[in-house]
Amino acid sequence: xxxAALKLETRFPREMARIRQAGLLQAxxxxxxxxxxxxxxxxxxxxxTGAPGSDAVLPAIGILVLALxxxxxxxxxxxxGFLAARAIVSQLRRAAVDNLPRFSPFxxxxxxxxxxxxxxxxxxxxxxPWLTRWHPARLRMAxxxxxxxxxxxxxxxxxxxxxxxxxxxIPIFMALIGLRARDASDRQMAELGGMNxxxxxxxxxxxxxxxxxxxxxxxxxxxxxxxxxRRQTMAVLRIAFLSSAVLELFAALGVAxxxxxxxxxxxxxxxxxxxxxxxxxxxxLFMLLLAPEFFQPLRDFAAAYHxxxxxxxxxxxLxxxxxxxxxxxxxxxxxxxAAASPIPMRLALAGIGFRYPGEARDVVAGFSLDVAxxxxxxxxxxxxxxxxxxxxxxxxxxxxxxxxVRLDGIPLDESSAAAARARMAWLGARPHLxxxxxxxxxxxxxxxxxxxxxxxxxxxxxxxxxxxxxxxxKGGIGEGGLxxxxxxxxxxxxxxxxxxxxxxLILADEPTAHLDRQSxxxxxxxxxxxxxxxxxxxxxxxxxxxxxxxxVVRL
Amino acid sequence: xxxxxxxxLRLFWQERRRALxxxxxxxxxTLLAGVALLGLSGWFITATxxxxxxxxxxxFDIFAPGAGIRLLALVRTGARYGERLVTHDATLRMLAxxxxxxxxxxxxxxxxxxxxxxxxxxxxxxTAEVDALDSLYLRVLAPIGAALAVxxxxxxxxxxxxxxxxxxxxxxxVPAGGLLPWWVARAALRPNxxxxxxxxxLRARAVDLAxxxxxxxxxxxxxxxxxxxxxxxTRLAQAEDALNRLDARSGxxxxxxxxxxxxxxxxxxxxxxxxRxxxxxxxxxxxxxxxxxLxxxxxxxxxxxxxxxxxxxxxxxxxxxxxxxxxxxxxxxxxxxALRMAGVSLHYPGAGAPVLNGLDLQIAEGECxxxxxxxxxxxxxxxxxxAGEAxxxxxxxxxxxxxxxxxxxxxxxxxxxxxxxxxxxLAAPxxxxxxxxxxxxxxxxxxxxxxxxxGLDTRLGEGGFGLSSGQTRRLALARALLRPAPLWLLxxxxxxxxxxxxxxxxxxxxxxxxxxxxxIVTHLRxxxxxxxxxxxxxxxxxxxxxxxxxxxxxxxxxxLRPD
Lengths: 555, 563
Hints:
The complex is a heterodimer of chains A (555) and B (563).
Chain A: H1 8-11, H2 13-48, H3 57-99, H4 113-125, H5 127-155, H6 157-204, H7 206-211, H8 215-266, H9 281-303, H10 305-321, E1 347-354, E2 364-371, E3 376-380, H11 387-394, E4 402-407, E5 410-411, H12 417-422, E6 424-427, E7 436-437, H13 438-443, H14 450-459, H15 463-467, E8 476-477, H16 486-498, E9 505-509, H17 517-530, E10 535-540, H18 543-546, E11 551-554
Parallel strand pairs in A: 3-10, 3-11, 6-9, 9-10
Antiparallel strand pairs in A: 1-2, 1-4, 4-5, 7-8
Helix pairs in contact in A: 2-3, 2-5, 2-9, 3-5, 4-10, 5-6, 5-9, 5-10, 6-8, 8-9, 14-16, 16-17
Chain B: H1 2-53, H2 63-106, H3 113-117, H4 119-161, H5 163-211, H6 213-218, H7 222-274, H8 280-293, H9 298-321, E1 331-332, E2 337-346, E3 356-364, E4 368-372, H10 379-386, E5 394-399, E6 406-410, H11 420-425, H12 433-442, H13 446-450, H14 469-481, E7 487-491, H15 499-509, E8 517-521, H16 525-528, E9 533-538, E10 541-547, H17 553-558
């Protein structure tokens, strides 16, 4: 699905209809003003012609009742539009979140996590102003001025002509001086966003800046570059704001022309323009009161202009997350059975071929391997030989183009992946630890008791990692495992894998890479303890680890 | 609310009070020109009708009102243009000042503690909060000021026409315009906070869903994590719904206050006209002026919600907006000593064992010491203490001149989104290009530079993006060479580099280690062999040490990772 193909109208017909209804309700509220204006003008006419003051009471009540109606219509439009727009945002988020796990974590072309987060969180929220402000404003701009123009036309064709001349001139002049400048100002606003980038960039390297004693200089540099940006931005805005001045000028001139014509007409100096008869004070005031409302929807629409760009960018970002994956994963997962005891798994790879999307050659071709239950096998080979890819194929994290993976004789596919994974444990080269407690990082939401946790930590020699930290198991880990060394993170990940007691197959991807000697030994020791009575497939560069396996397969 | 916003308001006020007041005044002028335009138009029409009815059409002066109407149309246009320019200029100036102040606020020791563990969350939060503060003047302060000024001047004008005419606007509009933003901001505080937290949770969980996909799938928890993302969206929707309800309610209230003022003005003027206290044209002027005055109050609805956001942001950023405290000075080390740590203990609250426990470490001028030990033995804590990022619970730290004047090189050297030259000038702001090129050459960066067509003007990406890790380390070395500092702190300078690159870098580094003291924190043998002395850290204190040539030296090196 391409960005252009994500059409809200076809994907969310009901919600978009509601947003249109919100626009219609807003337009209706704008049109109620016609009734209020007629009452107001009639009352002033009465005052001028000597009617008693009590004559104003009924119209006043009428105006108030109509005001309540307008308030109700506006509130209803606001709520209806918001609820529909929010439903669209939620459904798009859901669709993206449902689609994300279909991308293989080994697919290099899958959306980057930073991009996923920014599209799902703040960008998706930018759809709201676009849907709730811009869309209804556009509808209102089409309806309200047209109706008002017709009402004015019924009174006087000259006044209607004055409005008609002013109104189309606005878009024309705005297009002439505005649009190009507006694009420039959008770019400039994006650069202002870059100011935040500058601040964040420097905050990220604060340690370095402090170490170099460059804090003061950087603060001054920050300010100077913000000042420079301000001068550039103002140069652009000086032109861009001409368009809002033009809008103001024609709206004001429209009112002025209507007022002048009506005044001169009432004096008898312009005795034409009212379909043969003469205008009354009531109809003259009525038209004057309608004139500002004629221009109001145009101004509201102009004010919502920026919402559109942000909304369309968000939609394009979401569309990218909704594209089908180039390298899919086998779906299916089941919670491990905590009561089950490990039964070592038999693993058979037959004629496996795999190629990453967009690459010229197979990373794995015609690969076969049989691993007996309980056997420990090391895959040894240079980087890029496809060791990690093979491990991912066994776990169903990638799907082979040729050949089959059999686990205990059962081919690995969509229907068997869940049961198979419940009997696997995985230890990755770069385990993901999220910001949260050790407890939450170990459990990953699975149900295990305290005793099982401690046993797993013990097995992974990770007990001291936790004990040394403030708060113990309840103590915190930073984003992506910040605050832990590589060896500590690896041991926590090993404990996490060890929690699945039902695992009959352990897959370990470079478990000792980039570790100091002691940490590497601790991880290897824990891994072998865990693998006792289980099948183990490990990829490694480490000759010391490979030597401790039953068999070494070179790629 | 004022207590939270006051540091910010003071900052704004000190900086640009004239521009701030001028912008609000121009905003009010635009609105007042609109009030006068519609009022005068209403008066003109009614007066011409009255003149026609009285048969005085021929003597009616049409020139002055007509000119007035045209003039007001132009004044409104000009004032609007000026207002846009002045308010945006003021906003951009504030933006510059605010970022400078925030940066200084965060640059104090410990302030960036949260930054170290959860940088992404903090930086995201900061972006949202700074944006909220940016719009405080343009969307909140200036419109409220302008609306109140318009209401007061409008009341004054109506009072001059007849005192009774002033009351509807004074009693209905002014309180509504003054109190409503305050009330909405208060009521919005909770949902705003919940919205911010839900958005942060949504973001963090989405990152975890994508980054930790393998772990989730293999643990059978991918669906559960996807549900967690969507649960954050549900909370976000609830908070946004609460804010939208508030918006709908406050919008209706504000609207009805304006309409009530209009209706009461209508009734009052009808009575006054009947009593012949005012003429019908004056009544029309009053009515249309009041009607046009309502325009000033429309922006307050959005402003009220923005005020809620800004309030929350100011509350969170408050401590960073105050003037920063000075770093507590370190003791001065005696002549010939580059670093002396005596009996230093460091204890994180809630932790079982202290990280450092009575540590004694001294480095002589010109000496190179390698600090080795298991992960978690407290090596990085020592670096943080020396750099002034942490304070010891017990013991003393002495440095030459008592200031942490150091050079810091780590496995993740911070490079900035700036030109190559500016990245180097951090270390030596006054250095000439020739000195920069010499340093780059000494660090072995010249071949890389030769491939850059823009030379020193080449811009680096975020975090030095665009350079390989070996090139990054070389650049960091060049930067270090430019800085005359008595103590170099090297934190695993070749970790993560392949063997050939690492050896190459160490060959460039080695001859530069003389002339100053060096502390290398490492678990790599290739780094530790450069040192005159190896110190083994265990359980927060020095367990063993050996100089080059000592019999135990080789044994200490053997526990390190070979390559």
